[in-house]
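WARN no homologs supplied; continuing
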Amino acid sequence: MLSIRRLKKEDAPFLSEIEKEIFGKNAWTEKDFKETTAIEYAYYLVAEDDGRIVGACGYRDMCGEADITNVCVISAMRRRGIAERMLRELISHGREAGVRAFTLEVRSQNPAAIELYKKLGFVSEGVRPGFYDDPKDDAVIMWLYPNEKEEDLPSKKV
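OK structure emitted
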């Protein structure tokens, strides 16, 4: 049974292994995850399936703008709605905590992730050329403004 809970220090070794599988040399280390648990402006979740960690995601709140990082689900558990469920919970928590906007970068060659983010209301606001290595790829910069009307969005202002 899938459950989602807050990240704990003891999750760090498992998450660093998942990150290595997914992101290769760009993965966060065990130390990175442990340090994140001590940052008061960071909020990270893990997904567990029958007690086994299968994914994670989180954000760092910078003055009301949350930078979402580390959206990952092990390959054997993808396409089951786990990332969507984690992100919905993450966004809900952020809204309650006063986050006005969420942002993230996603590989331009990852259409499944881009479609998920669009489904959640994110819009593309630009590209960072050559942002990713291994393999080289551009990053699509996406934003979500959950409490704004469309006409109030920065990209819609003249």
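The longest strand covers residues 52-62.
OK
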